[in-house]
Amino acid sequence: MTSSTPAPTAVGQLADGGTTDARTAGIRAADTGTPDARSSDARVPDARTTGVRADDHRARPRTLLATSTYVRPGSTTEVPVVPDDRVELARELPPGYVAGEVRAGNLVKLRRGAYVSTELAKADGYVGAHRRAVARVRAVAGVTLPDRTVSHVSAALLHGLPTWWLPARVHLSQPIEPRVRKGDDVVRHVVPVPDDDVVEIDGMRVTSLPRTVVDCLCTFRPWDALVLVDAALRRGVDVAELLERLAAKRGHRGVRRAATVLDAADAGAESPGVSLTRYVLLAGGLPRPSTQIEVATRHGTVWADLGWKDHRLLAEYDGEGKYATRADLMREKQREDDLREAGNQVVRVTKGDLRDPDGLVRRVAARLPMSARRARGDRAGLPQIPVARPASPPSPGGAR
């Protein structure tokens, strides 16, 4: 949800020394969001334009220095898009150095031949897990052949796209089947990646943002895919380009489902929690809600996360840690009072509600008029989220 006061914008540094805000260099998937996401039609320049191309006939990867931040799903805790945690590769260090650092308690093995600081190895919570996931990508990218490209969910991490879960394995795309498969923490997708689909992030060869979105759309579970594609649209990725890319993959596994998810996408969903709330309501057969609904109140204009303006029903997603102080809680109470005084019903949604999708659908449906409830039934072609979701979902799909 968004108030009329502009929120601070994360800043990233471009390869040419300029700067760009979070919409082009990172992602701020905040529960409080930014005013720029008020309209679901909002568009910003495609991230492909923020890089630098070589003038030779074979374009080298465009360079993106990802230094901005986003907010982890369901919280207001910021984590870097690409944490700068150092990964020590044993093959690049003097003999005996790593063993000495391990004995001294300074380094811990991350994977074969790669080590990280003890602080990183012990870092807890989502932030720590996110840092280790990115470090694992760095470790694999540091020893891979030049025709290998970080892709799928691993590329999504490097682009700063929010995921509701963190991968245990690193995804690489490569043009030919490897003679020997090394590393059980690597998923290999045997598929060519054209130069136009490659960017460079912190020295790593990574699939471009549009390519990454399509790869994830075709391999993620649909609810996870909607979280990611909503965020990509906020970044300015063009729906028409995504549709063209899906059309080029017609007949491949996951394309039809990907098109269904893309049809449900909305750039106005300003956080992963809002995206999942939208998914549950659409899969439950409710009319499609609008996002970033502008409401005039006696204390000024505010924007509700989502709802049905014609029916004066609003839904607000409350992420964990949103109300850090009593003052935060009182401000939110006043805000909700203002929304109700303006003639609206307000439904609050938490992460716990998303674990009971049918219950959430019933609660919202009961507040819609009978005419809107009679419009239910198409379920948007989306399967409902299972009630008992695993705490740490596995990496989606296999190599393809």
* Overall pLDDT metric: 78
Within the CATH hierarchy, at the fold level, what is the topology of the domain at 272-381?
A: Endonuclease, Chain A
Helix content: 25-40%
> Mind describing the biggest β-sheet?
5 strands, mixed
How would you describe this structure to a colleague?
- The chain is an alpha+beta fold.
- It has a domain at 272-381: Endonuclease, Chain A.
- It is built from 14 helices and 17 strands.
- The strands form 5 sheets. Strands 2-1-3-12-13 form a 5-stranded mixed beta sheet.
- It is globular and about 70 Å long.
- The protein starts with 10 loop residues before the first strand and ends in a 26-residue tail after the last helix.
- The relative contact order is 0.13.
- Residues 2-80 and 389-400 have low confidence and may be disordered.
